[in-house]
Design goal:
The complex is a heterodimer. Chain A is mainly α. Helices cover about 35% and strands about 0% of the residues of chain A. In chain A, helix 2 packs antiparallel against helix 7. In chain B, strands 3, 4, 5, 7, 8, 9, 10, 11 and 13 form a nine-stranded mixed β-sheet that branches. Chain B is about 20% helix and about 40% strand. By secondary structure, chain B is of the alpha+beta class. Chain B is built from five helices and 14 strands. Chain B starts with a helix and ends in a 6-residue tail after the last strand. The radius of gyration of chain B is 19 Å and the shape is globular. Classes of the chains: A mainly alpha, B alpha+beta.
């Protein structure tokens, strides 16, 4: 009897030790997008996304611990309800009431992106968070300090272990967690998408249909469906602001051919991501279309498609705006999985 | 019993593990950070930081690759334990030359976040314009025209035409360890401390200095350190 119970205890001990040695298995997450879309630039299958990684990234995205004064989080300038943009703010805000030099862009369908930031400064979504964390007018913090702060938190140590089998917080895991969450920000449920599916009984109004026709004729070259961007850079004829003197892509490449080129933004959820352009100079979509009609500044790098502007009648502009509003995806904006974790 | 055999095997392998030891060198002496020294032309100089990446090691025998070690190592003058790079034991036995990347290759630069020595918290990553800094050399000299007479060389950039990582080739002899001097004075001479010894971004200057940086490595057989 004694021998038998010793065996049982030993057996239990082996199992317990065995469990302790086994790495925690993360749960892979498969994200879905319309079958008609191109394959994303970024691998999202094969365990690239996990429930635990996304949960950690989401918590970090909403946590001001990333900033030096613990006031600014990613969501300060990228709020889910407003297309992950900073609604009604021309330029990004940061610690100590500092004002940045560019408009906080909407975050959507990032897995299809090849370059990030208005000038394409960041070459991989994993590395993007470093830019706002370190920027003195955004979060103003050293990444190594962020890692140290997270390491002091029992909760974060547990979450990092759950996500990466390692409770030691590293820069690599911090960045990968944030990008995992960001990769889930897929918007493909707008009225436009429903019309394109041709399954549901959803059709454009006459005005939206005319706007779509005009859009395809004048805008689709750069704001290409279904992502509503080619992901490339273009000079859309904005006279440079005399204070900001922003040369755009040339800052990164030092190539004069890239002077005044900025990344072509997606137009998805554009109803909510105002103000528009890299410096937030236009408050309304109407003002944007007015610019393309009669505000274009000619220069050597101006996009060839805009050499003569986009002349539209007042009614046509109204129709284009009506079409652009069909790109709003309320299921995306109000998805509880995208919101601040409770 | 099996455990003892394994342990003995590990010990035996370790005994034959080949090593490269990078030795930062400044005008006749191993570099001491924060200590005033002088360049060969007599210019006083104090180096406060010297770090660089070395990786993608290839080992050759008779012109053929016999072994490789792909990891990147951050060599930091402030941390002598970082000078030593342990290599494949196989290379030790039969290798006659090595090559390695001084700096991080372009594919790694565009492939997202990495850990260990490539972790972006190491301070060797540009966050305003993605990409690793391949080499950092900072210090001061009365000859520098900049505030506090400081100078800063941050060499990086991975996109053509401003790609800066360089492959360095060295002949080696004997069974090692292989000491490799890293001659900071040559790099400073090329950078010209009197005129414009501040480089903080990619571009023509970073490319030119990186080509020089690839020539500052030399194998010193049989020298005791």
């Amino acid at each position: 009897m004694r021998a038998s119970s010793t065996k049982v205890i030993a057996g239990v001990l082996v199992i317990v030790l065995d469990c302790a040695m086994q790495p925690f298995m993360q749960h892979p997450v498969m994200v879905s997008y319309p079958s008609t879309w191109l394959k994303p630039a970024r691998e999202m299958g094969n365990g690239a996304l996990t429930t635990e990684g996304i949960a950690l990234g989401r918590k970090l995205f909403y946590d001001p611990i990333l900033s030096r004064d613990s006031i600014i989080s990613c969501s300060s300038c990228h709020l889910n309800y407003t297309a992950f943009a900073h609604v009604d703010h021309k330029l990004s805000h940061g610690i100590h009431d500092s004002i940045g030099t560019r408009n906080a862009p909407a975050l959507v369908n990032l897995a299809w992106g090849k370059h990030f930031m208005w000038d394409g400064a960041v070459n991989n979504l994993d590395m993007q968070a470093l830019a706002p964390i370190n920027h003195p007018e955004e979060m103003g913090e050293e990444t190594v300090h962020v890692v140290a702060k997270l390491q002091r938190s029992h909760e974060y140590r547990r979450l990092f272990f759950d996500a990466f089998n390692d409770s030691v917080v590293t820069g690599e895991h911090l960045l990968k967690a944030i990008s995992q969450f960001e990769l889930t920000l897929i918007s493909a449920g707008s009225k436009y998408d429903q019309v394109m599916e041709k399954k549901a009984i959803v059709i454009f109004t006459e005005q939206e249909a005319n706007g779509y026709k005009l859009f395809k004729a004048h805008c689709n070259v750069c704001h290409r469906e279904p992502l509503f961007t080619t992901g490339e850079f273009a000079n859309n004829g904005l006279p440079p602001d005399s204070i900001l003197r922003d040369v755009g892509r040339m800052r990164i490449t030092s190539d004069p051919k890239d002077s005044l080129l900025f990344k072509i933004p997606s137009l998805r959820n554009i109803e909510f991501s105002f103000p528009y352009m890299h410096d937030g100079r236009f408050k309304t979509l109407r003002a944007v279309l007015d610019h393309y009609d009669h505000g274009i500044m000619k220069s050597t790098t101006l996009a060839p498609e805009l050499q003569h502007g986009i002349p539209l009648t007042s009614n046509e502009r109204t129709d284009v705006v009506a079409f652009l509003l069909t790109l709003s995806d309320r299921d995306f904006l109000f998805d509880p999985a995208h919101a601040c974790p409770k | 019993m099996r455990a003892i055999v394994c342990l003995a095997l590990v010990v035996a392998l370790n005994a034959h593990a080949q090593r490269i030891e990078f030795i930062p060198w400044l005008a006749e002496h191993a570099l001491t950070l924060d200590q005033q020294s002088s360049l060969p032309d007599g210019t006083p100089i104090t180096v406060t930081q010297f770090r660089f990446y070395a990786g993608r090691f290839l080992f050759y025998r008779g012109g053929k690759v016999i072994s490789r070690n792909d990891a990147y190592h951050l060599i930091d003058a402030a941390d002598p334990t970082s000078f030593v790079v342990d290599l494949d034991a196989k290379a030790a036995a039969v290798g006659d030359s090595i090559t390695f990347m001084m700096g991080v290759d372009s594919l790694t630069n565009v492939s997202g976040a990495f850990g260990d020595d490539l972790d972006p918290t190491k301070g060797m990553y540009w966050t305003w314009n993605s990409g690793y800094i391949n080499l950092k050399l900072e210090g001061s000299s009365p000859a520098s025209p900049y505030p506090s007479h400081e100078f800063e060389l941050h060499l990086g950039g991975y996109s053509p035409p401003y790609a800066t990582a360089q492959r360095v080739a060295l002949y080696v002899t004997g069974s090692g360890p292989w000491p490799v001097h890293v001659d900071i004075a040559s790099l400073l001479a090329a950078a010209d401390i009197r005129t414009n010894c501040n480089v903080m971004s990619s571009g023509e200057k970073a490319v030119a200095l990186s080509r020089i940086a690839a020539t500052i490595f030399s194998y010193h057989a049989g020298i005791e350190h």
